[in-house]
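Notes, Module 5: Reading structure tokens.

Key idea: the token line is not a picture. It is a compressed description, and you learn to read it the same way you learned to read a sequence, by spotting repeated patterns. We will look at two proteins. The first is printed below with its tokens.
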Amino acid sequence: MLKLLGGLLIMAGALWCGVSAVERLRRRVRVLEDLRASLVWLSEELTFRRSPLPKLLEQLARERSGPVELFYREALAGLSQDPEGGLQQSWRRAMVLQLDFLREEERQVLVEVGKTLGRYDAGAQAQVLAQAARRLETIRAQAGEEARGLGRVYTALSLAAGAALVLMLL
């Protein structure tokens, strides 16, 4: 009975490892979609309303959730604390602190946005934001495919590893 319980616990632990790996992949997809949507919104607001950038960042921080909310809050806080450092520096700092799980290509898209915001006219900023949103959509689609494919692999491998470990210990 004790061996059976131990085997079940090992299988559950192995499955949990696989499921948590799948959840990290899915989280990345959700964050990329949220970032894309927020950049589209920011582009439209800059184009049509021409609202001040700090006000837009504040609104994004209120309307978003999870890592994207924290990213915009951190960027806004950095801008408030160090106005001389500019948005580019606070944007990059926020990205490093709150979106550290993103891959290099995704970070590069956001770095380019950070270099543009607050430095050029609204039209140029909106153009860069729209381009970044399109790029993030492509990356998100690839990440979604990767999450679906690797999700099955991670689940199967975790179950197989758990079963192998149970068999070795019995």
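Here is the second protein, with the sequence above and the tokens below, as before.
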Amino acid sequence: MENEINQIIKQVKKGNKDAFGVIIDAYERRIYQHCYRLLGSFHDAEEVTQEAFVKAYTKIHTFKNKQKFSPWIYRIATNTAVDWMRKKKPLYILDQPIAVGENITYLDHVKNTSETPEETIEQKENQDEMQQFLLQLPSKYRVVLVLRYMDELSIKEMSEVLDLPIGTIKTQLHRGREALRELMHGRAKGGQ
């Protein structure tokens, strides 16, 4: 896929504006989901996704064909989302529709491996609670945890996306996990 994308990028750089639509089609859903996980809001994720693709299009001339496209677009989306978070507090609504006119929420997309309705309800409650914890974390920790555990990127890929040294990524992951653990531990204490 990367070779195909690199060929399309060459076409875009030569002035073929329509070719960028193929890139959007290939990455829009993943970038949207990534932004939603970071922001926790359907509307904000949609806005940031659009803004990220506009930025990618205007900066396509800076993309080097020797690098992989996915870390490059994820970096743009992540930076755009972080900027958005600085400007606006995220909404804590998890059951918003993923797309206009659809009755499917982010939580509906999580695999259901439960066998009983009680397990399904418990799993949904756990997912809701985890999203709430993530939204309480500082953005630098939330970003690395989402990239690692939800987007399933490797440490090296995360380093490329965030343009940070691998050591910094590992440190932020560790601190993010610790901060998440503290939030969860505090909730457990408060709940008992």
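Summary for the second protein:
- The chain has one domain: 2-191.
- Residues 82 and 139 are 7 Å apart (CA to CA).
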